[in-house]
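=== Per-residue structure ===
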Amino acid sequence: MRLQIILAGIGGQGILFSSKVFSELGLKMGLDIMGSETHGMSQRGGSVIAHLKLGKFQSPLIRNGAADILYSFEENETYNTLKFLKGGGICFVNLESVDQFNKRIMKVLKEKEIALRAFDATGAASKIGSIRSANIVLIGYSVGTGLVAIKYEDLKYVLELVSREKDLKINLKALELGFQEGKRTSKNPGKSL
């Protein structure tokens, strides 16, 4: 298995923690891991992008048009990082509705057969009292859709491994919430590209 993943957002959205989760997940799956992060003014809400490669690769950075999956935790960062996705890739974005997404860009995505799945991970996370866990909600959502080759049980195991003790309960709750919502929407996909 070879998988190239971009994680994009702004400082404070858990990009680095999400990167750690995927790295440990890759190790659990017996894959080689390579990664790199770029930080803007992350402590002031600037861009944070993580490049992750699971499997055999030569360098940690993902070229434009090569990523299999983009997880974007903030709408504007989606526009900045879509260039990394390959044709036929998939983007999971933390957004209330795909209807909010830029229509011209949606047209380009459709032409490149890039699927866009919008889910309000921040809204869902606020329902469990922790908007900081929106990153885990979105990842759980993606696994629930069945569109990524990650098992729920493996993701849960990794969260138990890497979460701080004080955060474990809410992280597991966030994972379950996102996963169930992903399963629900995969049965009734509604709008996606």
